[in-house]
Each structure stands twice: as C-alpha cells, then as structure tokens.
Amino acid sequence: MEQPRVAAAAAGYQPAAPARHACVYTSCYCEENVWKLCEYIRSYNQYPLEEFYAVFISNERRMIPLWKQQSGCGDEPVVWDYHVILLHVSSGDQNFIYDLDTVLPFPCPFDTYIEEAFKSDDILLPGFRRKMRLIRADLYLKTFASDRSHMKDANGHWQKPPPSYPCIETADSKMNLDDFISMNPKVGWGSVVLLPDFVDRYGRQS
C-alpha cells in the first residue's frame, strides 16, 4: 500500500479511488481524469456520489498558479490556464482532495492541499487569483462533453497525446469544456466561488 493511503487510513478515512498508479490517467487531460474518477466512484458505490465535486480552477485571464505539481520545477508554481481536481466532502472531520497531477498525497487532506498547492491569493497579483467552479459529481457525469479539439494545434496535430478511450459526449453536446472552465456564474453548471470562500466552506473549522 502506498504511503499516502496509509496516512489517509490512519486518519480514519478510506480512499474513494484506487492507488494513483491504478487510476485512469492521461497527462494534460485533467478534466477527463476527474470524470473517470467520478465514474469509478459511481460504479464502486463505496460513498454516495453526491459527496463529490469536480472543481475547475481558473480565472478571467486563464492564468492560475499551482504549487506542488508534477510538472513543476522545485518550489516554482506551474501556471495553468485551468486545472481540475476532485473534492470529497466527507462525513468525517476533514475533507479530501484528489489530484492526479500533484506530488502531494493522493488523496490529500483538504487543508494540506490548500496550504501546499494553493498557498494564498494574498501573495499574488490580482490577475492571478484563483476561482473555482464546483459541479456535483453526478451532474458532471451527466453534462460534461469534450471532443478534445482544444488539444490540437492550428494544423490539427495533437499538442499532447489524447486518452485511448472514446471522447466523452452527451445527447446534447460533443464539446462544452469552455462552459466548465468559464468563471462566469451565468454560464454552465454548478457554482462559482473565490478561493477564500472555497477554503472557508470546506476547510477544517477551528
């Protein structure tokens, strides 16, 4: 058993997903990696799916710094246009974050992830401050669609190799990724919150 899962178990928490190496994962397709995690959680039925949220992180400029990413270099953050993680609002005394792109534990206690990966918006220029769109996992599975066209260059070549499984689509859409990345609360599904509000709502209450 990998060390992070030992730590989670010691905290009285049973991880909702397989070990990191056993998860469906494609680099640079975080939105699909989280969709696949939601699919696994639904099929495994260990926890109610309604306890989980897909969390899109972005802002109006689509420039958000995150620390402790596998693609990072030392203590420097990676600046993504967006990133997607999975939040488990646990019935225990703390919540957990699932991020397949972090060097932090998988799953990671919410407060640890915030402190290590997000740090604080107070240290950032306003244009880099993070917002979140939270979509309940059951709704995410029903509504998300991507034809992966955002990962092709002007000549139609893949910038990064796509997942091996078919594109995710719904009866209504083949591509609505931008509606999830958008931090306009009038667009798309779920709710949009600022980072401090996200921390206040889901962090440990002292």
Folded structure, characterized:
25% of the residues lie in helices and 17% in strands. The longest helix has 15 residues, at 30-44. It is built from six helices and eight strands, in the order H-H-E-E-E-E-E-E-H-E-H-H-E-H. A hairpin with a 7-residue loop joins strand 4 and strand 5. The protein is globular. It has 206 residues and is an alpha+beta fold. It has a six-stranded antiparallel beta sheet with strand order 6-5-4-1-7-8.
Structure, briefly:
The chain is α+β, with helices and mostly antiparallel strands and 206 residues long.
List the helices and strands and how they pair.
Elements: H1 3-10, H2 30-44, E1 52-58, E2 64-66, E3 78-80, E4 83-88, E5 96-98, E6 108-109, H3 110-118, E7 131-136, H4 137-143, H5 177-181, E8 191-194, H6 195-202
Antiparallel strand pairs: 1-4, 1-7, 2-3, 4-5, 5-6, 7-8
Helix pairs in contact: 2-4
